[in-house]
Amino acid sequence: MVVCGIVGIINKNKKPVKKYILFKTIECIRYRGPDDSSLVAFLDNKFTYLDSVSQDAEVKFDFFMGHARLSILDLSSKGRQPFTANDLNDRYWIVFNGEIYNYIELRQQLIDLGFEFYTDTDTEVVLKAYIKWGEAVWSMLNGMWSIVIYDIKTKNIVISRDRIGEKPLYYFEDNNFIIFSSEIKQMLPVVDLTENTLETHAILLNDSSGYTKYTSFNNVFKFPSSHFIETNIYDFKFDFKRYWELGYDHEHVYDRVDNKKLMEYSHEFYDILYDAVKIRLRSDVDVSITLSGGLDSNTIYHIMKELLGGTKPINVFSSVFDDKNLSDIDESKDIQEALKNTNFNYNPIITDYNDLDLFLSVYREKTWAYDAPVPSIGFSGYSVYKRIKESNIKVVLEGQGADELLSGYTDNWFNFFRVFKFYKILEAQRYVSGDIKKLKTILKGVLSNSILSNFTFETLYKKILKKHTDMFNIELSNELFEYMLYRNNFERRYRANQEYNLNDAIIYSLQDGLPYLLYTGDRDSMMFSVESRLPYLDFRLLEFVVNLPENYKMHNGFTKFISRYSFIGKIPDKILWNKKKLPYPDASYYYASTNKELNKFIISILQNYDSKMNYGQIIKNDYKSVEKILSYIFFKEQFFNERVDL
């Protein structure tokens, strides 16, 4: 298993390229793969491993592959990529970023069919599985991946990305090159890229992540998840083919909760999640967990305890706070309750928000890692991954994706009102249970959805945007406004006339909101050479939960009901039945509003960017916008040499 960074370049004209340029495509992302790297140039039916000698030498090639390796399984040099097996006569080559968790089972199937293996890597399994089964293999893989396979004899190339988009992959084409890479910055040594101001301004103007194929650079696009391409380097076509699509059984969407079925469903849910965690523990290096006081990470922690049986301590990392003013978001007590009577190495991380040099450094680092302006600094997450790396741990299990899959967000409750089924209104009432804030959130969702469904929604949205365009001194052109509507998918979100049930909402959340969180999670963890594994995104669990009647997901006033019911008696009741679980704790906004020295520091930076704006007032009322401006300044500086004197 290798989580890493990959690059592939088709040289349309076969014009020589300086060797140092090719090396830069990998060296700029070595944090993704610090353990090893290799580059191979192909020309006609020959291949050449590139060495670091004579960097000014020119390399002629029709296809090029590069790889930076973070070694997780089979730590020997036999797993080096680009990879070709000994028995393949150097014909088939692969670069692979990700993990195939069911590689052991697939390997055995291939051995039974007569295949031999020379490494213990999942890379060799994927390559030989593709040779055997062709495009059918993508539906057989359980994992996360971005893969490029090249046939040196036929010049055919296949490119594939995992079902939900856990591992990044981008592509670019002009008259000279077609480039595929894990990060956009890998393209910069080869081609000149320009800013896609529609996207960068959209990031500044709106909190909504939006998920489109576009990026912050013109002519650079996201390779779609659940898709693959099979083509030829001499006649390349972007003919994307879908190999997986998430759907559900419409007939039983509104089935009421039946106790017998609830018992059956809860056992099946537990068994699938149990196996999802089990296969994600496959590793030749230590595996850890990020643990909060919430339901999702605690279910994973419980299963890890069951699987490891107390034979070795589990490395646990948690973001906590020692400031009394942040007691409402500090989960230390719940975490300690979860850790009772278990074998663990506990690592509580308290982020130092008062370190001004660190504050500035994190913004710079994250903007570079993201290849885009960063909507939010996420200081706590940065500190957690940093500590994991300092502890010499490469793999961490996390609960990302559970909120989207199990409808853990408050705004999903507005569907229970909108569809006007009496029992749904009762469910929503149970959830609110006297909590005025929750009621306001639900009603806001109902009202905004109703208002924005009619002819006035564009007018209202334009007024909202106008406030932000004035703040950022950006002209709200018709082109930018149309792009904002497209980017935030208003057509799908607010103009659907058909009944919008909870399963639709879940699929929408998985397809539209989650990809951005996966992108940020990948960048945040890989900045520190840490692989994040997400059991809740096992495709078997996705298919099972989405096909459950919606009342098994939201019931008796609780979100994530099937998960809570499945873990009765397994995790503390205080955590299991907690309705007030907060998002991942980050105190950036609190410290920005209370730390005068930090305020002055930020204002001094921003006034160099635009001295006309009242940044003191903006910090007080809209700190998120301040974060975006800071990151945008660094983005312009790092990628386009438009320096602001800081």
What would the keywords be for this entry?
single chain; alpha+beta; Rossmann fold; seven-stranded antiparallel beta sheet; 646 residues
Largest sheet: 7 strands, antiparallel
Strand order of the largest sheet: 4-3-6-1-11-10-12
| CATH hierarchy: architecture of the largest domain | 4-Layer Sandwich
Total number of beta strands: 19
Distance between the termini: 42 Å
Portion of residues in beta strands equals: 15-25%
> If you compute it from the alpha carbons, what radius of gyration comes out, rounded to the nearest whole angstrom?
25 Å
Instruction: Name the overall outline.
Output: globular
What is the CATH domain class of the largest domain?
Answer: Alpha Beta
Low-confidence stretches: none
Could you explain how this protein is built, in words?
The protein is of the alpha+beta class. It has four domains: 2-240, 4-Layer Sandwich (Glutamine Phosphoribosylpyrophosphate, subunit 1, domain 1); 257-405 and 504-575, HUPs (Rossmann fold); 449-496; 594-638, no CATH class. Helices cover 41% and strands 16% of the residues. The chain is built from 24 helices and 19 strands. It has a seven-stranded antiparallel beta sheet, with helices on one face. A five-stranded antiparallel beta sheet has the order 7-8-9-13-14. Strand 3 and strand 4 form a beta hairpin. The model has no long low-confidence stretch (mean pLDDT 87).
What is the element layout, followed by pairings?
Blueprint: E1 2-11, E2 17-18, H1 19-27, E3 36-43, E4 46-49, E5 58-59, E6 63-71, E7 92-100, H2 103-112, H3 122-133, E8 143-151, E9 156-161, E10 170-173, E11 177-181, H4 197-205, E12 220-222, E13 227-232, E14 241-242, H5 259-279, E15 287-290, H6 295-308, E16 314-320, H7 332-339, E17 344-350, H8 356-370, H9 379-390, E18 395-397, H10 402-405, H11 414-418, H12 422-432, H13 436-453, H14 457-472, H15 478-487, H16 490-494, H17 502-526, E19 531-533, H18 539-546, H19 561-566, H20 573-576, H21 588-594, H22 596-609, H23 615-621, H24 623-640
Parallel strand pairs: 15-16, 15-18, 16-17, 18-19
Antiparallel strand pairs: 1-6, 1-11, 2-5, 3-4, 3-6, 7-8, 8-9, 9-13, 10-11, 10-12, 13-14
